[in-house]
Design goal:
Largest sheet: 6 strands, antiparallel
Order of helices and strands: HHEEEEEE
Shape: elongated
Number of strands: 6
Number of helices: 2
Structural class: alpha+beta
Strand content: 25-35%
Length: 138
């Protein structure tokens, strides 16, 4: 059951709950709200750090490339080495154009689907070197 479905179920049954059940639910929702806020802040900080690394590589491509884990629109995860070249926004999504070192071609990536980003010394990476790896399992 999704969170949305659970909330709909709860909403339809609110009138039948006792005062004690409503108080308990209020406590649970307060705790959930605090935890959600904490997780959201952690995720936002992690995304900001990834974006900072991507921009650093973009502004100093002779020194840095990025090793990223990317989840595509089908949910397939790959590890690849890229050299970011451009960032832009469209339809509320931030996109990045980057040279995919392993495929030797420019690719577009949705920044929010980049799960991790590690700066790698560009002198350690050879163009055309196989750098695309499918990650099986979660």
């Amino acid at each position: 059951m999704s969170i949305r479905d659970a909330l709909r179920t709860i909403e339809t049954q609110l009138d039948t709950l006792t005062i004690e059940e409503l108080e308990a639910m209020g406590s649970i929702l307060t705790i959930a709200s605090v935890k959600t806020d904490e997780l959201l802040k952690q995720k936002q900080q992690a995304v900001a750090e990834r974006i900072k690394r991507l921009h650093r590589a973009k502004h100093d491509p002779d020194r840095w490339v990025c090793r990223i884990v990317y989840r595509d629109s089908k949910g397939e995860r790959t590890r690849r080495t890229v050299s970011p070249t451009r960032f832009w926004k469209t339809n509320g999504s931030q996109l990045m154009s980057a040279l995919d070192i392993g495929r030797e071609e420019s690719r577009a990536f949705t920044v929010s689907q980049i799960e991790s980003c590690e700066l790698v010394d560009a002198s350690e990476v050879l163009m055309g070197e196989e750098t695309v790896e499918v990650i099986h399992g979660d």
